[in-house]
Amino acid sequence: MSQRMTGRDDSVDHSAGLSGTAAPERSASDLRKRAEARARASEAKAADTPSPAETKRLLHELRVHQIELEMQNEELRQAQDALGASRTRYFELYDLAPVGYLTLNEAGLILEANLTAATLLGVARGALVQQPLTRFILSADQDAYYRHRKQLFETRAPQQCEVRMLRGDCAPLWVRLEAVAARDADDSPMCHAVMSDITERKQAEQTLRHSEERFRLLFEQAADSIFLLDIVPDGIPVIRDTNSAALRLLGYEREELIGQPLTLIEPTHDIAKLADARRQGILSGARIVFEASHRCKDGTIREFECSAAEIQIGSETFAISVERDVTGRKQAEAERESMATQLRQAQKMEAVGQLAGGMAHDFNNALTVILGFAELSLRQLSPFDPLRHSMDQIVSAVDKSAALTRQLLTFARRQIVTPQVLDLNVAIASLAKMLPRLIGEDIELRIVPSEGLWNVNIDPSQVDQILINLVTNARDAIANTGTIAVETANVVLGEEQCRLHAGVAPGDYLLLTVSDTGVGMDKATMEQIFDPFFTTKAEGKGTGLGLATVYGIAKQSGGFVGVYSEPGHGTTFKVYLPRFVGAAEQPEPKKGPTTLRGTETVLLVEDEPALLEIVRESLREFGYEVLAANSPGEAILLCETHTKEIHVLLTDVVMPTMNGRDLQQRLERIRPGLRTIFMSGYTADVVAHRGIVEARVPFIQKPFTIAALAGKIRETLGD
What we know:
22% strand; seven-stranded mixed β-sheet; Beta-Lactamase; 5 domains; 22 strands; alpha+beta; Helix Hairpins
């Protein structure tokens, strides 16, 4: 620079003078010489005065040089400020970081720590240095830390672990340690560790875990079934989880249901439609309530009331369905409905029974009179008399009317019956030849008797009525060709099966099944089939009393009738009759009387004048001597005053002043050994109330034919 300013080459060594440094060993003469040299140089310089232009130029260069120095100084100052700020930021980031930083040697001693680490542990930073980290780790977690440190230095791969650390007098805190291996200036192993406080996260996890445990406890201990379902778009919901109540009710193991579509337990044929309605309802955000049927593992069906809604678990959406088993309630409702139906049926029976009972006596008396006079007239007409056909029609009409009355009484369980212990297979076999003629050649009849069949106590004629009515009904249900099957079996009915049938006790029953391949019935028809006079046949083709008769016989015997049918799938009737423990009776074949005529004396007692007349005349036609009395008092008088033997008493059961049973006992005191025949048009309950059926005395039901009455007299007299 001095060369540019002077414009000449200065050969003087300025560096030594500017250095301001003198060697102590130099002599004073050297110093003197140098000073004189400098003085001469100064004088020479002063003598060489620059021109004004040169001076101006030199001043400008000095000014520029000054500015350059100032700029260099400013840059240096800024650099120093930036370095200071950087150091400050570094220490702030290091010391005040949200996580603790630790440097540890291989033995686990803390070499360096930031303020955050010291704060987390509740000690001064200086107190951390050269302390083992294990001093601050809870003893229960130190094994985990040792494994972490050992693996770090052995593998030199980044490691992490979670431990509890002591924090002064405060509660322990949860810390996550993340460490990387390194080496110091001496190439000794060391590591850098980041220490994060995860206490809140752990507490949240614990809270969540407790919440999940409470939910699981409630989930598992709930009395109702609970299903957690995946909502599958345009598909069947899938079972994600379920509780113990559901498993217990349905009979499955948990792993058998998890991941399975809901169709596994829902038996409905329209499962897709139901699932779509359920899914749309849930996705609408509303809680939906509905009823569903579930199929248990053993195939049984249980009914449930369900309440379903959408729930969010984490980032996933599910449907939760809480379902209450209402099978028992549904069964109770069905039982109440069945009982109500049975009550209505019983009321119908009672009404019909009262009607039948009210009309039976007078109607049967009238029929007996009509039948008697018609038969007397026929006996007096020649075989070719034109009136004979008319009289035959009268007899036929009386027979049909009498049968109709008997059917009504059977339905109302007021028919007079004489039960016997029977083998049902034998009773059916006795009809086997007649039934094919009844149903025709186009229909196949299959009879399948069960081996070892129990006995039943029933009037044999009622077995015939049951079988004939059911087979006839089956025949009418088959349009062209088909099959009718008659089967027998032993069955044991429990309380569940008997609960739906009022008055039926659990126990052993004989089952008579008649099934056909006919047109079947709908539900509405099945609800009316046992009603008297209900028929699906064309007008004039049936009375509507066939099935009503079967129903009445079964109920009178202590059993019941079940029916199963679907349109187009035929019909099955099942008649349950109580088992009778004892050997079947072997009735001796009855031989008809060799003659219907007789000469014995008959004491006839009947309070209906027309009936008294026709019976008297009819018996006289057969040769009997008849003492006719229209009241019990008159009968007693005749018995006391008649001097000859009276062989048989023929008396009505119900009379105004004295019933037939009392009259018999009174006359037996007058004439010991007097044989008696009772006759009546009343119903079974009225006759039985007078002790007639129980006494097993000879009895004839009105209306009767003259021949039947004459035969009963010969039978009673031992002919």
